[in-house]
Design goal:
Blueprint: H1 2-27, H2 34-56, H3 63-96, H4 103-128, H5 149-179, H6 184-216, H7 219-242, H8 245-259, H9 282-293
Helix pairs in contact: 1-2, 1-7, 2-3, 2-4, 3-4, 3-5, 3-6, 5-6, 6-7
């Protein structure tokens, strides 16, 4: 019972944090960027996965229902990892390829990676391992006949790729920070790197214990998995909202507009921080990043 209560409380907290993150990113319209587009999709995928997990992970009485829940969980948890891969790609494009294609084209590519790749994986896996979708204890992939590797394989690949991406991004970020520490490029890069530093280990470690918990049914592993699973939404909210400099600045700008303080308003495409420094435009941002790499 204690584990059940901990699961309910932890996931409810995570779900609330994910909802708050999505609402705030939608509300603060000036924060719209490729990074926040990816983050909103990642949060939505994780939100649906956690709601389904909370409501149906133990609904094993009816085979059809359990099968459907397993498919939904497999798809949306894979989507979380695919959108995390998109985060890594976006970091590389921002730091190493400032002259990348337009936002619309990139967004379409990201959606294909984030939403369509899991469709392909789940379709193939479900077709080949239909009977392994759902077990006697949980509505999840069976570990006995290899079905679980349709989740572990892609997830592990994404974690490994994003780990390498983070290493290169941190190196590039510190070069950019030394070049102009208060510019928008540095702030955006810092936000992306912080998010990656939270998401990669949290998601990776969570599912290491998740596999152990579902396989061994060990109480200790179950507790660790539940705690880490609940920490995902909280970690995203803290890193990308509460501790994010762009969000803080945009909130101050919105508040100043409501109170009639014109000193904090943006001037055209120029964006100002709250210590009086003028930010650069997006075009200037890409030029500066390109010069740092030379």
């Amino acid at each position: 019972m204690a584990l059940e209560y901990l699961t309910i409380i932890g996931l409810c907290l995570s779900i609330v944090c994910l909802c708050a993150t999505i609402i705030i990113l939608v509300f603060l319209k000036h924060l719209r960027s490729q990074r926040t587009f990816i983050l909103k999709n990642l949060c939505f995928a994780l939100l649906v996965a956690q709601i389904t997990f909370l409501a149906g992970i133990d609904q094993t009485a009816e085979r059809g229902i359990c099968l459907g829940i397993t498919v939904i969980l497999h798809y949306f948890f894979l989507a979380v990892f695919m959108w995390m891969l998109c985060q890594g790609i976006d970091m590389l494009l921002t730091l190493y390829a400032p002259e990348s294609p337009g936002k619309t084209k990139i967004s379409v590519i990201m959606c294909i990676i984030g939403w369509m790749t899991p469709v392909l994986i789940v379709s193939v896996a479900a077709g080949l391992k239909y009977n392994d979708y759902g077990t006697a204890k949980y509505c999840w992939l069976s570990q006995h006949d290899g079905a679980i590797y349709a989740f572990v394989g892609p997830a592990l690949t994404v974690v490994m790729v994003n780990t390498v991406v983070l290493i290169f991004s941190v190196v590039k970020f510190y070069k950019l920070k030394k070049y102009e520490p208060d510019c928008m490029a540095a702030k955006r890069s810092r936000a992306a790197v912080k998010s990656g530093l939270v998401m990669v280990p949290v998601l990776g470690i969570t599912w290491v214990f998740g596999l152990l918990a579902f396989d061994k049914s060990t109480v200790v592993f179950m507790y660790i998995f539940v705690i880490l699973n609940a920490s995902q939404g909280v970690g995203i909210f803290l890193t990308n909202i509460v501790l994010n400099e762009e969000v803080k600045d945009e909130y101050k700008r919105v508040r100043s507009r409501k109170t009639g303080d014109s000193s904090a308003e943006q001037d055209g495409e120029l964006k100002c921080d709250w210590s009086g420094n003028t930010y650069i435009t997006d075009d200037m941002l890409r030029d500066k990043i390109a010069r740092v790499g030379n």
